[in-house]
Q: What sequence folds into this?
């Protein structure tokens, strides 16, 4: 989980424009939000390996994964390819992969850090 979070956190800085497209226009400060969430993912990854921080990090991550799901749904609906920053993504078929993956992440964090 830590490696995945660090990788996706770094991706917020590499694919900033595409990840900004994943947020609806009405959300203010979209680009700073992408940077901020990247920092949060990296910080949460580090916190997971610190025993005294593990539980709080896990609760944060479970909430974070739930809160991020609408952005993934929005991106799929609008065919956003965040790596290329285009509207040529897989579309709604992507959700058949992403929603179960999001659930897996939640269960993974819960079993490894909350029930630990």
A:
């Amino acid at each position: 989980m830590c490696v995945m979070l660090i990788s996706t956190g770094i991706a917020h800085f590499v694919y900033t424009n595409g990840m900004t497209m994943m947020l609806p226009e009405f959300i203010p400060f979209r680009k700073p939000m992408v940077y901020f969430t990247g920092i949060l993912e990296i910080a949460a990854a580090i916190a997971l390996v610190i025993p005294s921080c593990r539980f709080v990090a896990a609760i944060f991550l479970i909430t974070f994964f739930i809160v991020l799901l609408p952005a993934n749904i929005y991106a799929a609906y609008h065919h956003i390819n965040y790596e290329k920053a285009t509207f040529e993504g897989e579309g709604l078929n992507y959700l058949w992969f992403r929603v179960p993956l999001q659930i897996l992440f939640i269960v993974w964090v819960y079993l490894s850090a909350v029930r630990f």
